[in-house]
Amino acid sequence: xxxxxxxxxxxxxxxxxxxxxxxxxxxxxxxxxxxxxxxxxxxxxxxxxxxxxxxxxxxxxxxxxxxxxxxxxxxxxxxxxxxxxxxxxxxxxxxxxxxxxxxxxxxxxxxxxxxxxxxxxxxxxxxxxxxxxxxxxxxxxxxxxxxxxxxxxxxxxxxxxxxxxxxxxxxxxxxxxxxxxxxxxxxxxxxxxxxxxxxxxxxxxxxxxxxxxxxxxxxxxxxxxxxxxxxxxxxxxxxxxxxxxxxxxxxxxxxxxxxxxxxxxxxxxxxxxxxxxxxxxxxxxxxxxxxxxxxxxxxxxxxxxxxxxxxxxxxxxxxxxxxxxxxxxxxxxxxxxxxxxxxxxxxxxxxxxxxxxxxxxxxxxxxxxxxxxxxxxxxxxxxxxxxxxxxxxxxxxxxxxxxxxxxxxxxxxxxxxxxxxxxxxxxxxxxxxxxxxxxxxxxxxxxxxxxxxxxxxxxxxxxxxxxxxxxxxxxxxxxxxxxxxxxxxxxxxxxxxxxxxxxxxxxxxxxxxxxxxxxxxxxxxxxxxxxxxxxxxxxxxxxxxxxxxxxxxxxxxxxxxxxxxxxxxxxxxxxxxxxxxxxxxxxxxxxxxxxxxxxxxxxxxxxxxxxxxxxxxxxxxxxxxxxxxxxxxxxxxxxxxxxxxxxxxxxxxxxxxxxxxxxxxxxxxxxxxxxxxxxxxxxxxxxxxxxxxxxxxxxxxxxxxxxxxxxxxxxxxxxxxxxxxxxxxxxxxxxxxxxxxxxxxxxxxxxxxxxxx
Length: 757
Hints:
CATH topology of the largest domain: Spore Coat Polysaccharide Biosynthesis Protein SpsA, Chain A
Largest sheet: 9 strands, mixed
CATH superfamily of the largest domain: Spore Coat Polysaccharide Biosynthesis Protein SpsA, Chain A
Strand order of the largest sheet: 11-14-13-12-15-21-17-22-20
């Protein structure tokens, strides 16, 4: 036995040496004008062009390098073999090896493994809920970072993930990336929602698998990969299927190229399971589903869809599942159990992927045997419920790789593919044209560029419970913030019990800091009616009105309270506003309810519990009417003197520079996004409300208090830069012109009033 082992080791060493020499020979001969042709197989043509020659040579060199890598892996494994000469676990079949050691028939012309740089690659992902929608972004970033090909992502989603991911990809605008959605919740036989690519693709997915009892935490969505032959377009022949907890460390085109290694019978590419689950020895009376040896992990799957459809895949897996459920009663690992049962029945269906295509980081796995060096890694799979806290010898490296993509600036992934037009992107092309039409000599160029900037938007970043039937008088607090105002969140949640919609302006790294902060906060983590929408940073100005519009557009209640993050509403304001909406019969009238604003200069404040307490503090000088010292025109029309004694709502008239905080219907005019940074962002909105003939009604028993903070960067620029103030004046004049075009002669009063000041 020992002699046999030594002989095998010598053969492997000799093979590695020969392979290295051959690879250098390819490179040397390839540098000669005709030498390349001599090394190409006859089936490539007798007189290939230089481009074809070069591409074929590069392909063969890459192929040799891959084989060298596999040989090194086998060498390291051979060195660890036992004295009986049995192979160590972890070796992977290559070039179409079958489980029983059989090899597929090979022709004189081996299948090409290279992928053309403009070939469209298809990736399918099942994604449901807020957390998975957040996780899948890191996966997508890792793919985009390495990719050199156009991509088409196919997402099978619930309604939550569909809304989140559709908005994210539309706002991301990555060149040569197309996205399709297949909503497992809403698709019904015979109907075709707008998210469905074509009528023939509208199938009911949930009923296909809802009959299968599943103990796995993924629930019904953990079974959806079984339906892909039916869910995906019938003209789609092959697809890579990924779990959301995958991280790529290489170009996904390398994995796509493996399709070329399938034999005629192989239809599914999988990596062997790296735990002992399917061996049935984890605990006493452990009875897993049937599997071939250790079984296979379905975190990474290569599917030849056309062949599967031809084989009758739907009937195949369904009959297998029905048979096994008679004794197993339920699945433990969702779709993975059923895939393995099918493969156990017919091993010829599977192509064994090398295990570095799915390095499984769950506890008690043998994943370390999938690589001899960390540079060998291709795909990392965080398939333990512990995720980043999993035990592994090299977990620190894996964790850092994952965190790199987690916090990576997604804006940098908008790069065009070199030498490949890819897929058309009309919205991006229109935006690019608008940017090119800007005059760079315009003193206000930076403002106009910021207005046209397309920000990535991730809606509902944290868990949010949607309202099935909102109360007709319900109201949502709407605000926006950046990282430096994060400390206000807990206080606002304590003052306002109702729904909240917040737009947060952050970088990718800051968004993760916020996530950790919110999850660690007892106050924030206990709330499920606070919607956090991340608008990712880009440009030099704070896009305040874009943020307001994002938060406003994603409310559910009929009414919204438009405020700023540095204001604390009075205790009980939520209930008071709902009662006022009902008493004033707001559904039958067009009105904006004004909540009077006050401020304190003290960082520590005993918050008044009533109007009487507030008036007392106002008289003592511990509170002031908002901006009384620096900008009285902004809130003077509220008529604070009248408010002191008012017991009923009273109407006030619009005046120049009036910018109160109001409660309006959700379908109110949106904020004008040309105003970025500091200045005129609320004034313009109130002006448009007045132009649409909203009544301005001051509430007699409502108030809010502005808490002190350091001045923002944009207000500092406004105060210090004459050019900034000049551009703001230019934008105001342009806004007046647009208002006149929309509302005619009625809007002339605003320009006249401004000029009279």
